[in-house]
């Protein structure tokens, strides 16, 4: 029987919850367990699972939602350590013999590692676990870094082995080989932290947007890298309640993602094709960049995707922003849905393993396997090769992924160039490091972003 099944088979009915805080803590523990096992066993995205749960269970208030949601996502951040507490969570002399006690121990450690503030519930989980001594944390023991947290766990549970590398699956290092110990630790540190909410302003000055947000008690700060980018911090925000968003003056887009549009750098009157647009975040960015250069910009963007619903969402977003010149042309077959040799620029934001978004989606590191990376390069090369037919002579071809693996990035570009002598790489500047190169990997710790890869090529005249 797997550990998750062992917990599921154990009833919480035997747990004695007497105070209101203990009863709520017990209820939270059960709900979090249900959601956690659904994600892990059915391999469903955690944000979708928890979103559907709250949609159906409207009884939860904002505090309930916060405890459940933040605890759930934290479990995935620290699961590389927490999964060691299967049926042994002792300090070498004592053990936890039931799945129920182990689960409460995990919830307690999870809260300690995240420095969560709901102490009455943490105290209840600690009591339910029967491990008060080893789960206690002195006020003068700050756990500010991954290394400090690893050392604390090791001191509290010497019978178990903890390393910082445990926080990502072993296959990650196989597909993203990084030998430098400091760089490995920096990646783990950033992947174990919550990402900020990055946004991009449209049709409005950044300073004006920040002032409007301040009136809503939202502290926004301008990015030092892009003039139209702002950070909205880490708190959840009701976008639909903001006039900035409703009026199309604000779009949520991670700063790492914004790098791609900046490398595309479209001219005001260019014609671009976004081949794998999804809901069109980068299509909107391209149009916004055109208008920033000329308010009368005549440039156009055609957005394509194999899915219709994201294209419908793009149409809504473009209408909200008042953007003209963006049209949709869905992929219906392997044939191009657009004219050949027609575009000044073609963006191929290819389907990928999304390892660069693991901060935002920590569950993906445990529900995916190495195939998530290994299965993609052939598809990526095929999409890039077919899409390149739409680039006119002298036009740009930009390849991007949100993967950190060279198998999906440099290897795909090099394979493409080996078969297409009419394309050459262009030297561009990394927006965060300033390094000039033909291909750029945006690592999350460089500017507190998601991870991205981007390379710009040119078709010979």
As residue ranges, the low-confidence spans are 89-97
The percentage of residues in β strands lies in 5-15%
Which percent range fits the helix content? Answer: 40-55%
Given helix and strand content, the structural type is alpha/beta
Distance between the termini: 64 Å
Count of separate DSSP helical elements: 20
Radius of gyration: 24 Å
How confident overall, as mean pLDDT? 91
Indicate the overall shape: globular
Please give the largest β-sheet.
Answer: 8 strands, mixed
Number of strands: 14
Structure description:
The protein has 461 residues and is an alpha/beta fold. It contains 20 helices and 14 strands. It has helices at 3-9, 20-42, 46-56, 62-77, 79-82, 99-114, 119-129, 132-135, 146-156, 170-175, 181-191, 206-214, 243-246, 255-264, 281-293, 308-321, 364-367, 371-374, 377-387, 410-419; strands spanning 198-201, 221-222, 229-231, 250-252, 271-274, 300-303, 326-328, 343-349, 391-401, 423-425, 428-429, 436-437, 439-442, 452-459. The strands form three sheets. Strands 5, 6, 7, 8, 9, 10, 13 and 14 form an eight-stranded mixed β-sheet that branches. A four-stranded antiparallel β-sheet has the order 2-3-1-4. The protein has a two-stranded antiparallel sheet with strand order 11-12. A hairpin with a 6-residue loop joins strand 11 and strand 12 (436-437). The longest helix is centred in the N-terminal third of the chain and has 23 residues, at 20-42. The radius of gyration is 24 Å and the shape is globular.
